[in-house]
Automatic annotation (TrEMBL):
InterPro entries: HMG_CoA_synth_N, PPIase_AIP, PPIase_dom_sf, Thiolase-like, TPR-like_helical_dom_sf. GO terms for biological process: acetyl-CoA metabolic process; farnesyl diphosphate biosynthetic process, mevalonate pathway. Residues 88-168 form the Hydroxymethylglutaryl-coenzyme A synthase N-terminal domain. Residues 26-85 form the AIP/AIPL N-terminal FKBP-type PPIase domain. It comes from Diaphorina citri (Asian citrus psyllid). This is Aryl-hydrocarbon-interacting protein-like 1.
Amino acid sequence: MDSNSSLIQKHILHAGKEYKEIKDGSKVHFHFVTQLCDSDNTILDDSRKLGKPMQLVLGKKFKLEVWETLVKHMSIGEISKFVCDKSWPENVGILGIEFYFPSQYVDQTELEKHDQVSAGKYTIGLGQAKMGFCSDLEDINSICLTVVSNLMKRYELDYAQIELLQVESPEEYEQESWQLTEAEKLASIPKLKEDGNTLYKAGNIQGALDKYSTALGYLEQLMLKEKPNDEDWKKLNDLKIPIQAIDVLKKFLVCS
């Protein structure tokens, strides 16, 4: 497999039907069962009980070394059991509890004043001192992956049974915001605008608005990194204004 192959034993339970190269940026879909190497083969986790397979983007997009190493050399449809030596990977696993709290928050005392409610409604009634919220650089996917990453580092994986279901190359699926570099976000804006126009002409108003909103979100993220009224900021703003105008107009038409 790789430099750690001597620490992994692979047993093919069901041969796959097709091998597809899994390169950095590929998204893999697979079911897994993780168990302890004890006399009872205690099951730690089973993706089928969760109702859907695990998805993982390989390489620099979001690296989970254990899973990446195991699935990279599997064929689609293959079911294999892997036994991993305890010395590798070190301090990695999936059993435990992990919490994630956004770094930004609203002071509930201030929110009581802003909402013009009685003092203590939130701080005493709800028992809240602060309420966390995410920036537009985070979403439910990045939060969940952060938690999974922390769990993988904290606990030890003994062995896993994995069924590889699907491999999507980077160009075969629509990448999410957290996967894109700044250059990729900028390059995607004209296509998002074009796709929005196409959807609008086809009568898919909500789909069009979603495309425009995504493009505007990318532009706003990029503009935050520039000094207002500098040359690069103005170029981004020039891209933003027509998309924003279209977005507002079509939202108005929907409401009316």
